[in-house]
Write a structure and sequence with these properties.
It is a single chain. The protein has 312 residues and is mostly helical. It has one domain: MetI-like fold, CATH 1.10.3720. Helix content is 71%, strand content 1%. The chain is built from 16 helices and two strands. Strands 1-2 form a two-stranded antiparallel ribbon. Helix 4 packs across helix 15. The longest helix has 35 residues. It is globular and about 75 Å long. The termini are far apart.
């Protein structure tokens, strides 16, 4: 009997250790505090982003009636009517032209600026500050300035043409030039993109840089064979963001010409804006928004797959 009690006494502490401890107060706080900080962001994201997406998808099947929302259910009628609308396809053409112009004229500019900033040592901070300052200025002020530059009567662009003996052009009133005039200010570059690329370049291992210099890989060669391959990941991410931004271009065409002349500068987002706020055709506007979201999603998915294959 005594031996049994002794055995039980020795086994008791082990039994207590195996018993599950209750969750203490500070553990509950540590578990809840991160979610409390995340909760406002999650709530606003669900309400202002995902709810609006599902609401737009819902309205795209209705002929919206303001007096009796959501109106009459028409199924795919809004999409059918939209695909027969010449203004819809014209806005798609303009949007794709914007995409080509933005990628061709502006996408590589911040990369080139960051590459040359990396070569500057003495005045790098000053040059970086000068590049970031335009991002602080509101875009509307920048557009007002460029509207003065493109003015056919007293603008700087026509003044330069006259210096070379060329005839002045009605830049923003010309259907052939208006989209180019809207995109061209991006050629100046600068902004946050330069800082992102410069940070990625400065993050390249110093050992790689020194090894390249010992092998005689300096200047342009180092940019091409060392720097650019090591920031490819950021370039691909920026390419995705640039593509998405170009397909959603709205404020610049609206503030320059409101989509004119003769809808020559009207992008698809601007057409959606007009359907919502000018003609109040919420159903058709929602249908156009859903098609734009679908195309952007497909393009983004393809780019992400290509990026993943390249990284592997």
């Amino acid at each position: 009997m005594d031996a049994l009690r002794e055995t039980t006494r020795k086994m008791a502490p082990a039994t207590v250790l195996k018993r599950k401890r209750p969750l203490k107060g500070y553990q509950i706080k540590n578990a809840l505090i991160p979610w409390l900080f995340l909760l406002p962001g999650i709530a606003f994201t669900l309400i202002l982003r995902y709810y609006t997406i599902f609401r737009g998808f819902f309205l795209s099947f209705y002929h919206f009636n303001v007096a009796d929302p959501p109106g009459v259910f028409v199924g795919l009628g809004n999409f059918t009517e939209l695909f027969r609308d010449s203004y819809y396809w014209n806005s798609w053409k303009n949007t794709l032209i914007y995409l080509v112009l933005i990628l061709a004229l502006t996408f590589a500019v911040p990369i080139i600026q960051a590459l040359f900033l990396d070569e500057v040592v003495k005045f790098r901070k000053l040059a970086t500050t000068l590049y970031i300052l335009p991002a602080v200025i509101p875009g509307t002020i920048n557009i007002v300035l460029w509207k003065w530059i493109w003015s056919p009567d007293y603008g700087l662009a026509n003044y330069i043409l006259k210096l070379f003996g060329a005839d002045p052009l009605p830049w923003l009133s010309d259907m052939r030039w208006v989209k180019f005039c809207i995109v061209f200010p991006g050629v100046i570059g600068g902004g946050i993109g330069v800082l992102l690329y410069l940070a990625a370049i400065l993050g390249i291992s110093q050992d790689i840089r020194e090894a390249a210099m010992l092998d005689g890989c300096t200047g342009i060669k180092r940019m091409v064979y060392i720097t650019l391959p090591n920031i490819t990941f950021l370039i691909l991410i920026q390419l995705i963001l640039c593509t998405m931004g170009a397909l959603q271009i709205l404020d610049a065409p609206f503030q320059y010409t409101k989509g004119g002349p003769a809808h020559a500068a009207e992008s698809l987002p601007l057409l959606i804006y007009n359907l919502y706020n000018v003609t109040y055709d919420f159903g058709k506007g929602s249908a156009a928004a859903m098609t734009l979201m679908l195309i952007i999603s497909i393009i983004t998915f393809i780019q992400l797959k290509l990026n993943k294959q390249q990284s592997e």
